[in-house]
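Below is a filled-in request sheet from our internal design queue. Each sheet records the structural input a requester submitted and the sequence that came back. We keep these sheets so that new team members can see what a complete request looks like end to end.

REQUESTER: design group, bay 2
PRIORITY: normal
MODE: inverse folding
CHAIN LENGTH: 143
BACKBONE (tokenized):
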């Protein structure tokens, strides 16, 4: 079921992964150039917070989400609805399942998996907002 000789979800972009780091440099240039444009900053912030949430959810639940064709075959065999994408990860976190070592070893006795997810994603989001705020509200130096 997991054997995909064509590369699965990473087929198209797997060759670009090394370029992502270099291309991300231009994000800094874009933030610097458009930092006074409130629509750009708002769009960037919303997109970044969504990305942080989805990636944190995937990091603490499962990295083995099958693509839609495999889910459809699994539904036909099992007779029950299966979710795919980050919906599947969200369902796992709602059920209290997390593969995170830090959660299982240290936080499991003190909070639920959902609380851990919200805490972790919020902490990363606060750091993003603080860094973006520093970029947006910094003073220009006259050289």
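RETURNED SEQUENCE:
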């Amino acid at each position: 079921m997991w054997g995909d000789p064509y590369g699965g979800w990473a087929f198209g972009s797997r060759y670009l992964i090394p370029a992502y780091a270099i291309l991300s440099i231009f994000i800094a240039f874009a933030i610097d150039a458009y930092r006074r444009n409130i629509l750009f900053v708002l769009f960037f912030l919303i997109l970044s917070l969504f990305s942080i949430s989805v990636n944190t959810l995937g990091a603490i639940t499962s990295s083995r989400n099958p693509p839609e064709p495999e889910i459809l075959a699994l539904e036909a065999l099992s007779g029950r609805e299966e979710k795919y994408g980050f919906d599947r990860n969200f369902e796992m976190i709602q059920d209290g399942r997390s593969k995170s070592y830090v959660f299982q070893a240290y936080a499991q006795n003190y909070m639920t998996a959902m609380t851990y997810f919200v805490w972790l994603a919020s902490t990363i989001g606060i750091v993003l907002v603080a860094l973006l705020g520093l970029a947006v509200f910094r003073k220009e130096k006259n050289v």
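SHEET NOTES:
- The longest helix spans residues 113-136.
- The CA atoms of residues 44 and 79 lie 41 Å apart.
FILED BY: M.R.
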